[in-house]
Protein backbone atom coordinates (compact mmCIF):
# COMPACT_ATOMS: atom_id res chain seq x y z
CA UNK A 1 0.00 0.00 0.00
CA UNK A 2 1.30 3.46 -0.91
CA UNK A 3 2.33 5.83 1.82
CA UNK A 4 -0.29 8.47 2.52
CA UNK A 5 0.39 12.05 3.44
CA UNK A 6 0.11 13.22 7.01
CA UNK A 7 -3.16 14.92 6.10
CA UNK A 8 -4.75 12.80 3.36
CA UNK A 9 -7.31 14.27 1.02
CA UNK A 10 -10.05 11.83 1.99
CA UNK A 11 -10.97 9.32 4.67
CA UNK A 12 -13.15 6.29 3.92
CA UNK A 13 -15.04 5.40 7.08
CA UNK A 14 -16.32 1.83 7.26
CA UNK A 15 -18.58 1.12 10.21
CA UNK A 16 -19.02 -2.22 11.94
CA UNK A 17 -22.40 -1.36 13.47
CA UNK A 18 -24.17 -3.73 11.11
CA UNK A 19 -22.20 -6.66 12.56
CA UNK A 20 -24.05 -6.04 15.83
CA UNK A 21 -27.32 -6.29 13.89
CA UNK A 22 -26.49 -9.68 12.42
CA UNK A 23 -24.72 -8.56 9.27
CA UNK A 24 -22.42 -11.10 7.63
CA UNK A 25 -18.75 -10.81 8.55
CA UNK A 26 -17.86 -11.85 5.01
CA UNK A 27 -19.80 -8.84 3.74
CA UNK A 28 -17.91 -6.54 6.10
CA UNK A 29 -14.63 -8.06 4.88
CA UNK A 30 -15.59 -7.38 1.26
CA UNK A 31 -16.56 -3.80 2.05
CA UNK A 32 -13.28 -3.18 3.85
CA UNK A 33 -11.29 -4.80 1.03
CA UNK A 34 -12.98 -2.49 -1.47
CA UNK A 35 -12.20 0.57 0.65
CA UNK A 36 -8.51 -0.40 0.86
CA UNK A 37 -8.36 -1.08 -2.89
CA UNK A 38 -9.72 2.42 -3.51
CA UNK A 39 -6.99 3.99 -1.38
CA UNK A 40 -4.36 1.85 -3.11
CA UNK A 41 -5.64 3.03 -6.46
CA UNK A 42 -6.28 6.69 -5.63
CA UNK A 43 -3.55 7.36 -3.09
CA UNK A 44 -3.78 10.29 -0.65
CA UNK A 45 -6.44 8.55 1.42
CA UNK A 46 -6.95 6.54 4.59
CA UNK A 47 -9.37 3.91 5.83
CA UNK A 48 -10.95 4.00 9.28
CA UNK A 49 -13.07 1.30 10.89
CA UNK A 50 -15.69 2.29 13.45
CA UNK A 51 -15.74 -0.65 15.88
CA UNK A 52 -18.90 -0.47 17.99
CA UNK A 53 -18.89 -4.19 18.78
CA UNK A 54 -18.51 -5.14 22.43
CA UNK A 55 -16.13 -8.08 21.96
CA UNK A 56 -12.45 -8.37 21.10
CA UNK A 57 -13.11 -10.44 17.98
CA UNK A 58 -13.14 -7.57 15.52
CA UNK A 59 -10.05 -5.97 17.03
CA UNK A 60 -8.10 -9.22 16.61
CA UNK A 61 -9.41 -9.59 13.05
CA UNK A 62 -8.43 -6.03 12.10
CA UNK A 63 -5.02 -6.25 13.77
CA UNK A 64 -4.19 -9.53 12.04
CA UNK A 65 -5.73 -8.95 8.60
CA UNK A 66 -5.68 -5.19 8.12
CA UNK A 67 -2.86 -3.62 10.15
CA UNK A 68 -2.85 -0.58 7.82
CA UNK A 69 -6.41 0.35 8.88
CA UNK A 70 -7.06 2.74 11.75
CA UNK A 71 -9.62 1.23 14.13
CA UNK A 72 -11.68 3.56 16.33
CA UNK A 73 -13.10 1.73 19.33
CA UNK A 74 -16.59 2.93 20.27
CA UNK A 75 -18.04 -0.12 21.99
CA UNK A 76 -21.81 0.13 22.36
CA UNK A 77 -22.03 3.47 20.57
CA UNK A 78 -25.10 4.63 18.65
CA UNK A 79 -24.95 4.50 14.83
CA UNK A 80 -25.04 8.28 14.27
CA UNK A 81 -22.84 9.09 17.23
CA UNK A 82 -20.12 6.75 15.98
CA UNK A 83 -20.09 8.52 12.63
CA UNK A 84 -19.89 11.91 14.36
CA UNK A 85 -16.86 10.75 16.37
CA UNK A 86 -15.28 9.61 13.12
CA UNK A 87 -15.41 13.18 11.82
CA UNK A 88 -13.20 14.20 14.74
CA UNK A 89 -10.80 11.28 14.36
CA UNK A 90 -10.45 11.35 10.56
CA UNK A 91 -7.58 13.28 9.01
CA UNK A 92 -8.98 13.69 5.51
CA UNK A 93 -10.42 16.90 4.14
CA UNK A 94 -13.37 14.90 2.83
CA UNK A 95 -15.18 12.03 4.55
CA UNK A 96 -16.63 9.15 2.56
CA UNK A 97 -19.01 7.03 4.63
CA UNK A 98 -19.43 3.38 3.65
CA UNK A 99 -21.31 0.87 5.79
CA UNK A 100 -19.83 -2.55 6.37
CA UNK A 101 -22.77 -4.22 4.60
CA UNK A 102 -22.39 -2.16 1.40
CA UNK A 103 -20.23 -2.90 -1.63
CA UNK A 104 -19.14 0.16 -3.65
CA UNK A 105 -19.47 -0.09 -7.40
CA UNK A 106 -16.77 1.06 -9.87
CA UNK A 107 -16.16 4.80 -9.70
CA UNK A 108 -18.01 5.22 -6.39
CA UNK A 109 -15.40 7.31 -4.63
CA UNK A 110 -14.43 9.30 -7.74
CA UNK A 111 -17.99 10.43 -8.36
CA UNK A 112 -18.39 11.66 -4.78
CA UNK A 113 -14.95 13.27 -4.61
CA UNK A 114 -15.38 15.08 -7.93
CA UNK A 115 -18.42 16.94 -6.58
CA UNK A 116 -16.63 17.84 -3.35
CA UNK A 117 -13.38 18.85 -5.07
CA UNK A 118 -15.13 21.12 -7.55
CA UNK A 119 -16.98 22.82 -4.71
CA UNK A 120 -20.38 22.02 -6.23
CA UNK A 121 -21.52 20.99 -2.75
CA UNK A 122 -20.08 20.47 0.72
CA UNK A 123 -22.12 17.26 1.10
CA UNK A 124 -23.27 14.69 -1.42
CA UNK A 125 -25.06 11.36 -1.35
CA UNK A 126 -24.80 8.39 -3.66
CA UNK A 127 -27.40 5.87 -4.82
CA UNK A 128 -28.02 2.79 -2.64
CA UNK A 129 -30.17 -0.23 -3.43
CA UNK A 130 -30.43 -3.75 -2.05
CA UNK A 131 -28.53 -6.48 -3.85
CA UNK A 132 -30.83 -9.07 -5.35
CA UNK A 133 -33.79 -9.54 -7.67
CA UNK A 134 -37.44 -8.51 -7.86
CA UNK A 135 -38.27 -8.63 -4.14
CA UNK A 136 -35.17 -6.69 -3.16
CA UNK A 137 -36.12 -4.06 -5.76
CA UNK A 138 -39.43 -3.60 -3.93
CA UNK A 139 -37.67 -3.27 -0.59
CA UNK A 140 -35.21 -0.81 -2.13
CA UNK A 141 -38.10 1.48 -3.03
CA UNK A 142 -39.53 1.20 0.48
CA UNK A 143 -36.26 1.84 2.33
CA UNK A 144 -34.41 4.08 -0.14
CA UNK A 145 -37.36 5.66 -1.91
CA UNK A 146 -35.96 9.16 -1.52
CA UNK A 147 -33.52 8.33 -4.36
CA UNK A 148 -36.33 8.12 -6.90
CA UNK A 149 -36.41 9.62 -9.46
CA UNK A 150 -32.70 8.89 -9.96
CA UNK A 151 -31.48 12.28 -11.18
CA UNK A 152 -29.15 14.98 -9.93
CA UNK A 153 -30.90 17.21 -7.39
CA UNK A 154 -30.91 18.24 -3.74
CA UNK A 155 -31.69 15.23 -1.53
CA UNK A 156 -34.40 15.59 1.07
CA UNK A 157 -32.84 12.56 2.75
CA UNK A 158 -29.52 10.79 2.21
CA UNK A 159 -28.25 7.31 3.10
CA UNK A 160 -25.43 7.34 5.67
CA UNK A 161 -24.13 4.12 4.13
CA UNK A 162 -23.13 6.07 1.00
CA UNK A 163 -22.25 9.70 1.56
CA UNK A 164 -19.45 12.23 1.10
CA UNK A 165 -19.09 15.39 3.15
CA UNK A 166 -16.53 18.03 4.04
CA UNK A 167 -15.04 17.15 7.42
CA UNK A 168 -15.46 20.77 8.54
CA UNK A 169 -19.17 20.73 7.70
CA UNK A 170 -19.70 17.39 9.46
CA UNK A 171 -18.03 18.78 12.57
CA UNK A 172 -19.95 22.06 12.42
CA UNK A 173 -23.35 20.48 11.68
CA UNK A 174 -23.37 16.85 12.91
CA UNK A 175 -26.45 14.60 12.86
CA UNK A 176 -28.80 15.62 15.71
CA UNK A 177 -29.39 13.13 18.51
CA UNK A 178 -32.80 11.56 18.02
CA UNK A 179 -34.89 8.56 19.01
CA UNK A 180 -34.00 6.81 15.76
CA UNK A 181 -31.27 4.47 14.59
CA UNK A 182 -30.30 7.00 11.96
CA UNK A 183 -31.34 10.65 11.62
CA UNK A 184 -30.41 10.97 7.93
CA UNK A 185 -33.71 12.63 7.01
CA UNK A 186 -33.61 15.14 9.86
CA UNK A 187 -29.92 15.85 9.25
CA UNK A 188 -30.57 16.44 5.54
CA UNK A 189 -33.31 18.91 6.46
CA UNK A 190 -30.95 20.70 8.87
CA UNK A 191 -28.32 20.96 6.13
CA UNK A 192 -30.89 22.40 3.71
CA UNK A 193 -31.87 25.03 6.29
CA UNK A 194 -28.17 25.72 6.79
CA UNK A 195 -27.91 26.36 3.01
CA UNK A 196 -25.45 23.46 2.65
CA UNK A 197 -27.75 20.81 1.12
CA UNK A 198 -26.80 17.26 0.23
CA UNK A 199 -26.51 16.91 -3.54
CA UNK A 200 -27.52 13.62 -5.15
CA UNK A 201 -24.78 11.89 -7.18
CA UNK A 202 -26.60 8.97 -8.87
CA UNK A 203 -23.40 7.57 -10.37
CA UNK A 204 -21.91 6.89 -6.91
CA UNK A 205 -23.53 3.51 -6.30
CA UNK A 206 -23.35 0.86 -3.62
CA UNK A 207 -25.13 -2.48 -3.26
CA UNK A 208 -26.57 -3.04 0.21
CA UNK A 209 -26.85 -6.43 1.89
CA UNK A 210 -30.44 -7.71 2.09
CA UNK A 211 -32.05 -7.08 5.48
CA UNK A 212 -34.46 -9.14 7.61
CA UNK A 213 -37.87 -7.96 6.40
CA UNK A 214 -39.81 -7.89 9.69
CA UNK A 215 -37.04 -6.16 11.60
CA UNK A 216 -36.48 -3.52 8.93
CA UNK A 217 -40.14 -2.82 8.30
CA UNK A 218 -41.04 -2.38 11.98
CA UNK A 219 -38.01 -0.14 12.44
CA UNK A 220 -38.99 1.98 9.47
CA UNK A 221 -42.52 2.26 10.82
CA UNK A 222 -41.22 3.40 14.21
CA UNK A 223 -38.93 5.94 12.58
CA UNK A 224 -41.77 7.43 10.52
CA UNK A 225 -43.30 8.58 13.82
CA UNK A 226 -40.02 9.35 15.57
CA UNK A 227 -38.98 11.63 12.68
CA UNK A 228 -41.96 13.85 13.50
CA UNK A 229 -40.93 14.06 17.16
CA UNK A 230 -37.42 15.00 16.11
CA UNK A 231 -38.49 17.61 13.56
CA UNK A 232 -41.82 19.30 14.37
CA UNK A 233 -41.49 21.40 11.19
CA UNK A 234 -42.42 18.37 9.07
CA UNK A 235 -45.84 18.70 7.47
CA UNK A 236 -47.05 15.38 8.85
CA UNK A 237 -46.00 16.17 12.43
CA UNK A 238 -49.40 17.71 13.08
CA UNK A 239 -51.01 14.33 12.38
CA UNK A 240 -49.64 13.03 15.68
CA UNK A 241 -52.31 15.03 17.50
CA UNK A 242 -54.69 12.30 16.35
CA UNK A 243 -52.78 9.59 18.22
CA UNK A 244 -53.52 6.12 16.82
CA UNK A 245 -55.86 7.66 14.25
CA UNK A 246 -52.80 9.20 12.59
CA UNK A 247 -51.50 5.78 11.54
CA UNK A 248 -53.83 5.39 8.52
CA UNK A 249 -52.59 8.76 7.27
CA UNK A 250 -48.94 7.71 7.57
CA UNK A 251 -49.76 4.35 5.96
CA UNK A 252 -51.54 5.96 3.01
CA UNK A 253 -48.76 8.52 2.53
CA UNK A 254 -46.10 5.79 2.45
CA UNK A 255 -47.99 3.60 -0.04
CA UNK A 256 -48.71 6.49 -2.41
CA UNK A 257 -45.02 7.47 -2.31
CA UNK A 258 -44.05 3.83 -2.98
CA UNK A 259 -46.24 3.72 -6.09
CA UNK A 260 -44.90 7.05 -7.36
CA UNK A 261 -41.29 6.05 -6.76
CA UNK A 262 -41.46 2.58 -8.29
CA UNK A 263 -43.05 4.14 -11.36
CA UNK A 264 -40.23 6.66 -11.75
CA UNK A 265 -37.52 4.12 -10.87
CA UNK A 266 -38.52 1.18 -13.07
CA UNK A 267 -35.44 1.48 -15.28
CA UNK A 268 -32.97 1.66 -12.38
CA UNK A 269 -34.73 -1.26 -10.69
CA UNK A 270 -34.70 -3.40 -13.87
CA UNK A 271 -38.47 -3.96 -13.70
CA UNK A 272 -40.26 -4.95 -16.90
CA UNK A 273 -44.01 -4.33 -17.29
CA UNK A 274 -45.04 -7.61 -15.67
CA UNK A 275 -42.62 -7.22 -12.72
CA UNK A 276 -43.78 -3.62 -12.24
CA UNK A 277 -47.48 -4.53 -12.12
CA UNK A 278 -46.75 -7.44 -9.81
CA UNK A 279 -44.90 -5.08 -7.45
CA UNK A 280 -47.75 -2.60 -6.98
CA UNK A 281 -49.92 -4.68 -4.57
CA UNK A 282 -46.84 -5.71 -2.57
CA UNK A 283 -46.33 -2.23 -1.17
CA UNK A 284 -49.54 -1.99 0.90
CA UNK A 285 -49.10 -5.57 2.06
CA UNK A 286 -45.55 -5.00 3.31
CA UNK A 287 -46.41 -1.60 4.79
CA UNK A 288 -48.73 -3.42 7.20
CA UNK A 289 -45.54 -4.46 8.99
CA UNK A 290 -44.63 -0.77 9.26
CA UNK A 291 -47.93 -0.25 11.07
CA UNK A 292 -46.69 -2.47 13.92
CA UNK A 293 -43.70 -0.16 14.35
CA UNK A 294 -45.91 2.92 14.18
CA UNK A 295 -48.19 1.55 16.89
CA UNK A 296 -45.20 0.82 19.10
CA UNK A 297 -44.02 4.39 18.67
CA UNK A 298 -47.43 5.87 19.48
CA UNK A 299 -47.85 3.73 22.61
CA UNK A 300 -44.30 4.34 23.78
CA UNK A 301 -44.22 8.06 23.12
CA UNK A 302 -41.12 10.24 22.63
CA UNK A 303 -37.98 9.21 24.50
CA UNK A 304 -34.80 11.19 24.94
CA UNK A 305 -32.14 8.49 25.26
CA UNK A 306 -31.27 5.60 22.98
CA UNK A 307 -32.90 4.33 19.84
CA UNK A 308 -36.46 3.13 20.23
CA UNK A 309 -36.56 0.86 17.22
CA UNK A 310 -36.78 -2.88 16.91
CA UNK A 311 -34.82 -4.80 19.50
CA UNK A 312 -34.26 -1.95 21.95
CATH topology tier name of the largest domain: Spore Coat Polysaccharide Biosynthesis Protein SpsA, Chain A
Rounded radius of gyration (Å): 19 Å
What helical percentage do the residues reach? 40-55%
Structural class: alpha/beta
How much of the sequence is in beta strands? 15-25%
> Helix count?
12
CATH level 1 name of the largest domain:
Alpha Beta
Number of separate domains: 2
**CATH homologous superfamily classification of the largest domain:** Spore Coat Polysaccharide Biosynthesis Protein SpsA, Chain A
Low-confidence stretches: 1-5, 304-312
- What's the helix-strand series? EHHEHEHEEHEHEHHEHHHH
Proper CATH architecture of the largest domain: Alpha-Beta Complex
User: How many E strands?
Assistant: 8
Mean pLDDT: 90
Q: Note the main sheet.
A: 8 strands, mixed
Describe the structure.
- The protein is α/β, with parallel strands linked by helices and 312 residues long.
- It has 2 domains: 10-211, Alpha-Beta Complex (Spore Coat Polysaccharide Biosynthesis Protein SpsA, Chain A), CATH 3.90.550.10; 214-300, no CATH class.
- The protein has helices at residues 17-20, 25-42, 57-65, 79-89, 108-117, 134-143, 167-172, 184-193, 213-230, 247-264, 273-279, 282-300; strands at residues 10-15, 45-51, 70-73, 94-99, 102-104, 123-130, 162-166, 198-208.
- Helix 3 links the parallel strand 2 and strand 3 (70-73).
- Helix 9 (213-230) packs across helix 12 (282-300) and helix 10 (247-264) runs antiparallel to helix 12.
- The N and C termini lie far apart (41 Å).
- The model is unreliable at 1-5 and 304-312 (pLDDT under 50).
Amino acid sequence: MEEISESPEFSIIVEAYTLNEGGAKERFDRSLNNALAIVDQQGDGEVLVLDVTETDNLQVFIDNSYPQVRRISLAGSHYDKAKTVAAREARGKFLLYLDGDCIPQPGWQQNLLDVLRRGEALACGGFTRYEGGWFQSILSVMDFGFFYPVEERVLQCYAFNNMGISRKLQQACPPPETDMRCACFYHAQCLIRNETPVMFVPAARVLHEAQPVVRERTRQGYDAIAACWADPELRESKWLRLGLLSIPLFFAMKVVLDWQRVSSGRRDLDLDNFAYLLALPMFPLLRLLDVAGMMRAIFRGPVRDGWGGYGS
